[in-house]
């Protein structure tokens, strides 16, 4: 499969209905989410770095690491995908290189953030931001570098946690004026703050819903009413997987085996179907000696 419908994402954003995007972090999550009819998927940096490197999302993954995942995820999905591009992996030349690479790999959009390098995952402490003008320059370079304006630039600011909401709003306005397609103010801490963000900007807004994070859990309908266009749920999938693995591995370690938990597992037959084994078996039948 090849990602070819970035235009669809831009058209859906213009349609007025909120887009709900689950976080994908490995090829099983990509294939599962792709078959469920979502309007958009979100390649989570936290989950991707964790599953690919087994490391925290703290600036340890390189551009090459992440491009590898973007290429695999978008190549295995028909659903438009916004992919985490961190800080652009360096200076302005690196930002241009990153944008071109993500776009060629099939992403529908790239998320760029205004954190200092090495970045840290949103909703975690210790995040520091660069000068707003430096991020403005990144956005301008990103726009120049993309081959098509159907490839969306999602501009994220992490200023809310360390510098307050007013500074985050000021930065977001500058990023909008620089040409960002979607604004992403990370970690608002109340429904009132979400409301203020929604009323301040008349353009696509993204909200990040992290279970156990700083932003309140509202329904997509409530978020749309407040003015948001995209709601991402980056952590839900890998948190669910970790919980399930802890349970079944614990049963195996305790010598209980899996007989009592087998019915709660994803079926082996469905997994074979999900991963495309049926095509392999058909190929073998056609070419059996």
TrEMBL record:
One of its GO terms (molecular function) is oxo-acid-lyase activity. InterPro entries: ICL/PEPM, Pyrv/PenolPyrv_kinase-like_dom, Pyrv_kinase-like_dom_sf. PANTHER family: CARBOXYVINYL-CARBOXYPHOSPHONATE PHOSPHORYLMUTASE, CHLOROPLASTIC (PTHR42905:SF5), PHOSPHOENOLPYRUVATE CARBOXYLASE (PTHR42905). This is Carboxyvinyl-carboxyphosphonate phosphorylmutase. It comes from Pandoraea thiooxydans.
């Amino acid at each position: 499969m090849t990602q070819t419908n970035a235009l669809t994402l831009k058209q859906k954003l213009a349609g007025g209905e909120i887009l709900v995007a689950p976080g994908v972090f490995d090829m099983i999550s990509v294939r599962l989410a792709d078959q469920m009819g979502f309007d958009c998927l979100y390649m989570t940096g936290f989950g991707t770095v964790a599953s690919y490197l087994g490391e925290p999302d703290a600036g340890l993954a390189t551009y090459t690491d992440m491009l590898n995942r973007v290429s695999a995820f978008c190549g295995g999905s028909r659903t438009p995908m916004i992919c985490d591009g961190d800080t652009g992996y360096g200076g302005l030349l690196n930002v241009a290189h990153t944008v071109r690479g993500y776009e060629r790999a099939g992403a529908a959009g790239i998320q760029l953030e205004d954190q200092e390098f090495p970045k840290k995952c949103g909703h975690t402490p210790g995040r520091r931001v660069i000068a707003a003008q430096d991020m403005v320059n990144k956005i301008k370079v990103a726009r120049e570098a993309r081959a098509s304006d159907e490839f969306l630039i999602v501009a994220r600011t992490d200023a809310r946690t360390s510098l307050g909401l007013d500074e985050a709003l000021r930065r977001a306005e500058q990023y909008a004026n620089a040409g960002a397609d979607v604004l992403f103010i990370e970690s608002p801490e109340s429904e009132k703050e979400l409301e203020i963000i929604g009323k301040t900007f008349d353009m696509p807004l993204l909200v990040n819903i992290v279970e156990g994070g700083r932003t309140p859990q509202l329904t997509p309908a409530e978020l749309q009413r407040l003015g948001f266009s995209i709601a991402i749920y980056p952590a839900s999938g890998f948190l669910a997987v970790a919980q399930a693995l802890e349970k079944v591995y614990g049963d195996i370690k305790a010598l209980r085996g899996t007989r009592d938990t087998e019915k709660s597992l994803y079926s082996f037959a469905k997994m074979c179907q999900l991963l495309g084994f049926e095509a392999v078996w058909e190929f073998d039948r056609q070419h059996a000696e």
